[in-house]
């Protein structure tokens, strides 16, 4: 096992390379998931805010006399 | 004076920002000799509408027609002038030099000159002052002088009354009346706080 | 030239940009002074050995000219967009690509030409031998318009962005790499007594292509930028 | 038969449908990437023998080369999507182009890092200014420029279109990366593996490499779909289907 | 409610730019509970007067007294808030965050909160939107909210009515009335085009 | 901390500037990318010989960091002046020098610190040996706050000018020469195995002085700048 880990003296290089590979891809996998959670939270906040905005009595559509 | 196909026409024009509608379907047709007032509260989408009409912003749905033909930035050949919140003046040049550039780009309406239009808007004596040194209202007047100088038939004016004194407001109204009399069309935004002189104009209301 | 015709429009725009540059003539001098100072910093940072300086002279002058042009590029369209002039250019009855081409020409005349003129002085401050200096000037005369044109496209792309200064550097520098390699390569070849025509010819070909395509690309990019 | 394909494509192009489709594909693609990756690692680290010249250090090849390929492949996909986005203004193409950029940048960064880690024992230096290494570095800058430009805009679509433009401009670099070993004589290895014709490598080394290549492809699909889903949510924030999803997310605890 | 020494006083205040007088000697005294309107045409020097009163520009002659003491930027301890043509809002922050910074710098008037003042100026629902996304009038309202939040006794408002719709103008008038009722003083510029509600205010006229 | 007290004001301002930087977090990364790209340009311009690159590594990294900081310095007070925030800072019941000091601190944290962090990577790309890299980082850690402080004074002075970017470069670079000489000298000494403490100590002394004086000078210069 320790021979496997030593990689014929190149253990440091090989294992660092593999570690970088996995860490970078892990970050790449998690980033969009976290961002999606944030977006959903923001959309909910926006829905709440827009409910606040619409003043009572104003029609929702535009009109023009042309 | 009304020509068969309107100068500027909007059909079911909508605009959305990030899928939230800014203004709903707007329809209007503006013939030569007509001035229309776009009214709406703060944030109702007046500036946005103006920018869509100039072709800077792409409307989500609906279309804008100029002289009966679908509107495109490349083909409208200087028929439209736009005066927005930003006046399009170079602060290091004088009013006269600024107008000379516009004249080179758009051409000059027959029978006017740069000195004459600057006098008309009340900037006589300030022609060669760098625009930087003019007050807020004087800058606005310099921008209004462009309208007089250029041969465009359609004017799009976003809050032309802001920052002007009483006399300046009267000036804008006079410019609009003369323009209409020449057969031009104009679309003007305002909050309705200043009274628009002359015969009651057409109104287009936007709601927030 | 009747006002409103295309030549008149080009002339009016060129005159405007040159007048503006002249009103701020301090600013024309500034890229030059910037280049002078950056080049003088190197002997301080590296120590004053002539052989070393001579060895790096061509490269340092190129990088410096590039950085100095970069600083001025940001001001190519930004002021026009901020003060509403760009809207007027777009609404004018003239081909936008041509108007943009005029703006790029004005930029090259005011921002790059002075650098080309001063480059021999900078190079001789770093002990570059005279024959190589001639090649340096030739290389700069071809490379700087190319950089102006490439830069203009990227500035136009970044013009709609919230803030563009640094972003521009990020986008421009990778594209400049070939220009720098060819131009500095020509100087290095001349310094070693090798033929240096080939890289310059490549740059010239690139320039011819860019003169045609860049204004069109710029105009398209500006249309995208104004769409907010 | 001839009729339902374009119809299906059209349906797929609509955001809510694509969102659901991508959501369904995502776990499968990620799972497949994981399984293939595990097999390839077993083959590469345990089964394959040490190289007679490089010893065990060569095992970096099993991540270096697939990542390097992906860094170029993803740029190719991005170029195609950017072209479609600019010419036909298709929203989904914009989204695919922009979602690909960070993944491509990640693979480019991995290539650079693993190459450096391999270069130290093999060439005695972390870095040289060799044509392939340098052009790969430039590729990273181009990726970063695209990401930066895209995010520098207030409006998503506008940013996407400006960045798509840059994608096309930067595409010249890709052939340079690939052919640099042929055009300039460099320290870096030339093509050792050919899909067509005999390779210069032992079969026990080739199969884990090809398996890893498959794993990275599936990983790309998974990550791309995950990002596209996120982008769609952000871009369509005002639409009813997103709002329902957001509200349902609170109620059901899962979106 | 009138205190013995006026809150803000100007004595023979003159300002010249390059030896050309911008406005002649101006004298006024503003006690707590008073609102004064500075009127003048475009270019008459209203903005310049405001900047002199804040201490940004140095007056050529005459002096400004705050609470009876000569006025200096270092010593006036947040007694003055200024709202100019530039609103002093960071466009990347939301209205709420902008107000939080002002609160940190100046402190908060007893009995108010950021959410409350934002609701008062009609920005409920827009509290967390980046200011960049607000329309011209909504930005102005966000700036007005600062006035309500801070404990300053003297308000200097340069064209607070510009860009506001009718309701917004009424809002400014209400804010001014409440401020005066609390014993504060305010100086407001305007072109006189919008009517100032409430009891007839003091007027200071500048001539171009 | 009650709102309106001096610590609260400092905290509010610092928080504001850091939030703004975070909202534009792309911009924090940009000076770093700029530095990376400029450093990579040198091997293209000079050719890839490791001995040559190693010889100039320290100097190039310093000049690059300096230029990258310079680009970001322009944004230190200009946005606040343009949008009217500066008037509010001046009218606030707090010592202006302290508020300005907070702004400088925020600027250093967001613009210079990332450069210090990335400098070892840049240096090793140019083959600087590890012991010299340690000295490089120490020298940068002392030199960059000094540059931030000096730069801030000059930015404040130039703020009244119509356009300040280039002017700033001009005024800052000569002042930076001593800083560059000391800092690059320390690295060169370390590279040659000589003692390198003395130049760093000088820089430290300069920093101590600047921390006290620069905010005061800045505040005075800003008062002058606003007086137009
Ligand atoms: C920072 C250093 C390095 C970088 C940036 C780099 C980059 C690349 C790239 C971009 C490719 C893909 C080329 C293509 O598909 O067209 C590649 C392939 C390859 N690299 Fe590297 N590399 C580096 C170091 C190394 C080292 C040190 C070795 C081994 C001694 C190596 C061995 C290989 C091999 C064997 C291939 C596959 C070649 C093929 O079959 O096409 N690389 N590298
Ligand atoms: N760049 C932008 N990004 C996102 N939303 C915006 C942007 N500009 C304006 N908005 C939003 O769009 C709506 C309409 O804005 P617009 O500027 O068109 O209003 P307006 O009618 O001109 O108002 P005002 O009278 O205040 O100038 C507002 O609710 C505003 O919040
Ligand atoms: N920076 C400056 N340099 C030189 N002169 C200036 C400058 N700013 C304004 N002026 C001049 O000073 C005079 C007064 O300008 P000011 O801006 O105070 O007018 P104002 O009353 O605010 O006008 P407005 O109603 O148009 O805003 C004007 O004649 C103007 O031309
Ligand atoms: Mg508006
Ligand atoms: Mg004013």
UniProtKB/TrEMBL annotation, chain A:
The chain crosses the membrane at residues 12-34. Pfam families: CcmD. It is found in: Cell inner membrane. GO terms for biological process: cytochrome c biosynthetic process; cytochrome complex assembly; heme transport. It is a single-pass membrane protein. The keyword Cell inner membrane applies. Keywords: Cell inner membrane, Cell membrane, Cytochrome c-type biogenesis, Membrane, Transmembrane, Transmembrane helix, Transport. InterPro entries: Haem_export_protD_CcmD (IPR007078), Heme_exporter_D (IPR052075). It comes from Luteibacter yeojuensis. Required for the export of heme to the periplasm for the biogenesis of c-type cytochromes. One of its GO terms (cellular component) is plasma membrane. This is Heme exporter protein D. NCBIfam families: cytochro_ccmD.
Automatic annotation (TrEMBL), chains B, E:
GO terms for molecular function: ATP binding; ATP hydrolysis activity; transmembrane transporter activity. PROSITE patterns: ABC_TRANSPORTER_1, ABC_TRANSPORTER_2. Residues 8-206 form the ABC transporter domain. One of its GO terms (biological process) is cytochrome complex assembly. Pfam families: ABC_tran. Gene3D superfamilies: P-loop containing nucleotide triphosphate hydrolases (3.40.50.300). SMART domains: AAA. Keywords: ATP-binding, Cytochrome c-type biogenesis, Membrane, Nucleotide-binding, Translocase, Transport. This is Cytochrome C biogenesis protein CcmA.
UniProtKB/TrEMBL annotation, chains C, F:
Coiled coil: none annotated. The keyword Transport applies. It is found in: Cell inner membrane. Keywords: Cell inner membrane, Cell membrane, Cytochrome c-type biogenesis, Membrane, Transmembrane, Transmembrane helix, Transport. GO terms for cellular component: plasma membrane. GO terms for biological process: cytochrome c biosynthetic process; cytochrome complex assembly. The chain crosses the membrane at residues 28-46, 52-77, 98-126, 132-159, 166-190, 196-222. It is a multi-pass membrane protein. GO terms for molecular function: heme transmembrane transporter activity. The keyword Transmembrane helix applies. InterPro entries: Cyt_c_biogenesis_CcmB, Cyt_c_CcmB_bac. Required for the export of heme to the periplasm for the biogenesis of c-type cytochromes. Belongs to the CcmB/CycW/HelB family. NCBIfam families: ccmB. This is Heme exporter protein B. It comes from Luteibacter yeojuensis.
TrEMBL record, chain D:
Its main location: membrane. One of its GO terms (biological process) is cytochrome complex assembly. Residues 15-188 form the Cytochrome c assembly protein domain. The keyword Transmembrane applies. The keyword Lyase does not apply. Keywords: Cell inner membrane, Cell membrane, Cytochrome c-type biogenesis, Membrane, Transmembrane, Transmembrane helix, Transport. One of its GO terms (cellular component) is plasma membrane. The chain crosses the membrane at residues 21-48, 68-88, 95-119, 131-150, 162-181, 201-220. It comes from the Bacteria. It is a multi-pass membrane protein. One of its GO terms (molecular function) is heme binding. It is found in: Cell inner membrane; Membrane. Belongs to the CcmC/CycZ/HelC family. Required for the export of heme to the periplasm for the biogenesis of c-type cytochromes. This is Heme exporter protein C. It comes from Luteibacter yeojuensis. The lineage of its organism: Bacteria, Pseudomonadati, Pseudomonadota, Gammaproteobacteria, Lysobacterales.
């Amino acid at each position: 096992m320790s021979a496997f880990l030593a990689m014929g003296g190149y253990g440091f290089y090989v294992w660092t390379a593999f570690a970088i590979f996995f860490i970078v891809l892990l970050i790449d996998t998690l980033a969009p998931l976290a961002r999606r959670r944030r977006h959903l939270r923001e959309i909910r906040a926006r829905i709440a805010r827009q409910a606040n905005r619409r003043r009572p009595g104003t029609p929702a559509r535009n009109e023009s006399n042309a | 004076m009304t020509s068969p196909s309107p100068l500027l026409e909007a059909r079911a024009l909508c605009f959305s920002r990030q899928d939230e509608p800014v203004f709903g379907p707007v329809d209007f047709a503006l013939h030569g000799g007509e001035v229309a007032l776009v009214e709406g509260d703060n944030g109702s989408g007046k500036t946005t509408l103006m920018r869509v009409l100039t072709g800077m912003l792409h409307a989500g749905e609906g279309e804008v027609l100029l002289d009966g033909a679908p509107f495109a930035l490349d083909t409208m050949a200087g028929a439209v002038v736009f005066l927005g919140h930003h006046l399009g003046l170079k602060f290091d040049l004088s009013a006269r030099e600024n107008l000379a550039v516009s004249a080179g780009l758009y051409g000059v309406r027959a029978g006017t000159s740069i000195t004459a239009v600057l006098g008309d808007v009340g900037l006589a004596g300030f022609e060669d002052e760098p625009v930087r040194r003019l007050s807020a209202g004087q800058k606005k007047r310099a921008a209004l002088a462009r309208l007089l100088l250029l041969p465009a038939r359609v004017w799009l004016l976003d809050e032309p009354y802001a920052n002007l004194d009483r006399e300046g407001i009267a000036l804008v109204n006079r410019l609009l009346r003369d323009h209409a009399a020449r057969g031009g069309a104009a679309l003007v935004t305002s909050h309705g706080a200043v009274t628009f002189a002359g015969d009651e104009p057409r109104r287009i209301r936007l709601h927030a | 030239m009747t006002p409103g015709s295309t030549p008149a429009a080009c002339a009016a725009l060129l005159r405007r940009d040159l007048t503006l540059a002249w009103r701020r003539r301090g600013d024309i001098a500034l890229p030059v002074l910037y280049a002078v100072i950056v080049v003088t910093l190197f002997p301080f940072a590296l120590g004053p050995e002539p052989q070393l300086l001579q060895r790096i002279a061509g490269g340092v002058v190129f990088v410096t000219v590039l950085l100095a042009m970069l600083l001025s590029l940001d001001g190519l369209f930004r002021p026009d967009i901020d003060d509403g002039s760009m809207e007027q250019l777009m609404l004018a009855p003239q081909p936008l690509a041509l108007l943009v081409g005029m703006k790029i020409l004005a930029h090259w005349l005011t921002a790059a030409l002075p650098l080309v003129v001063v480059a021999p002085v900078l190079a001789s401050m770093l002990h570059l031998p005279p024959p190589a200096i001639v090649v340096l000037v030739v290389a700069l005369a071809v490379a700087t318009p190319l950089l102006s044109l490439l830069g203009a496209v990227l500035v136009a792309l970044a013009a709609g962005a919230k803030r563009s200064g640094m972003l521009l550097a990020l986008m421009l520098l990778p594209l400049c790499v070939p220009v720098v390699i060819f131009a500095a390569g020509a100087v290095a070849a001349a310094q070693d007594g090798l033929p240096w025509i080939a890289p310059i010819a490549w740059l010239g070909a690139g320039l011819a292509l860019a003169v045609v395509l860049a204004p069109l690309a710029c105009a398209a990019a500006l249309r995208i930028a104004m769409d907010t | 038969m001839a009729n339902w394909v374009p119809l299906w494509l059209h349906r797929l192009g609509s955001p809510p449908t694509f969102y659901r489709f991508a959501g369904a594909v995502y776990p499968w693609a990620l799972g497949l990437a994981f399984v293939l990756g595990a097999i390839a690692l077993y083959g590469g680290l345990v089964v394959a023998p040490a190289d007679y010249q490089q010893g065990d250090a060569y095992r970096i090849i099993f991540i270096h080369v697939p990542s390097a390929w992906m860094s170029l492949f993803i740029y190719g996909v991005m170029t195609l999507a950017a072209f479609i986005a600019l010419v036909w203004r298709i929203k989904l193409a914009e989204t695919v182009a922009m979602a690909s950029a960070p993944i491509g940048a990640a693979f480019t960064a991995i290539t650079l890092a693993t190459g450096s880690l391999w270069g130290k024992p093999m060439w005695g230096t972390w870095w040289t200014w060799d044509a392939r290494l340098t052009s790969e570095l430039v590729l990273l800058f181009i990726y970063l420029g695209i990401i930066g430009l895209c995010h520098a805009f207030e409006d998503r679509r506008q940013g996407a279109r400006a960045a798509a433009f840059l994608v096309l401009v930067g595409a010249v670099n890709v052939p340079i990366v690939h052919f640099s070993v042929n055009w300039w004589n460099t320290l870096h290895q030339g093509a050792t593996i050919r899909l067509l014709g005999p390779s210069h490598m032992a079969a026990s080394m080739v199969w884990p490499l090809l398996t890893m290549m498959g794993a990275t492809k599936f990983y790309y699909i998974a990550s791309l779909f995950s990002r596209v889903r996120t982008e769609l949510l952000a871009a369509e924030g005002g639409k009813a289907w997103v709002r329902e999803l957001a509200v349902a997310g609170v109620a059901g605890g899962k979106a």
